[in-house]
Give the backbone structure.
Amino acid sequence: MTIYRGDVFKILLILLGRKQMHGYQLIEEISLHTDGSWKPSAGAIYPALNKLKDKKFITLKIDEDNRKIASITESGRLYLLMNDLDINFLNDKFMDTYRTRIKDHLSKIREFSKCIYKESSSDKKEQLEAILCNTAKLIEDLYYDGK
């Protein structure tokens, strides 16, 4: 998964458009929204927050615990509105992560299934067929659950 600098700025603005947060909260919120697939470092977040502050898209204020609390400004909200950015941008950005992981799993299944089919005894082939049949049934049940 590739995260571009511009994406970091957009993601921070989107999250700050929902509520004010300090850097660690932003890191945790991003990790939560990406199901842990991306947990940015402080070295990625704090410089981005400073650039957003320089552009007048956010303000940074020190709270009683000596943390920098970031809040979106009207200019920041306008930027989100003009660029049609909302939480869906974040969800869409990281949905590819799931697709990639699922594609990787399917590729491994295909690869090992071919190896077993070509190189193994009929007992292993029968075990493979049972595993694939069971897996297909589980996926089908998952698909139809709640429909």
